[in-house]
Design brief:
120 residues; alpha+beta; four-stranded antiparallel beta sheet; 4 helices; 4 strands; 32% helix; 18% strand
């Protein structure tokens, strides 16, 4: 069998890629979210999670096709989200709080911002 060269330039694959498994609930079940190639890096995934681009994240995997490895990055991402939310006082949805609580290896202590009624 002949092997043919890849039509994808190798330098575009020589990086860590992160994909998010999301639970769409009864509407569609679980699925790996379609992601633009440029948005599959860790920083963009963290930003998208914090800005509620994913309603119910379940698992995050990372891989590098050129280096030939893949791994479950769920705990790493949950820890990074907890740290980023605490450092920036970001508002965190209840679904994301649940994701962090279920997967972080460190304690997630964050004071949630609650609206105060009648305060002028």
């Amino acid at each position: 069998m002949r092997s043919s060269p890849s039509i994808v330039p190798a330098d575009r694959l020589d990086r860590d890629i992160y994909l998010v498994l999301e639970d769409f609930r009864a509407r569609a079940g679980r699925a790996w979210r379609e992601t633009d190639e440029a948005d599959a890096d860790l920083e963009t995934v963290l930003q998208n999670l914090l800005s509620d681009q994913y309603a119910y994240p379940v698992r995050i995997v990372s891989f590098n096709a050129i280096e030939g490895w893949s791994r479950d990055a769920t705990s790493e991402v949950a820890d990074a989200l907890a740290q980023r939310a605490a450092d920036t006082d970001a508002e965190v949805s209840s679904a994301l709080q649940d994701f962090i609580a279920a997967n972080a290896t460190r304690r997630f202590d964050m004071q949630l911002m609650l609206p105060l009624r009648g305060i002028v």
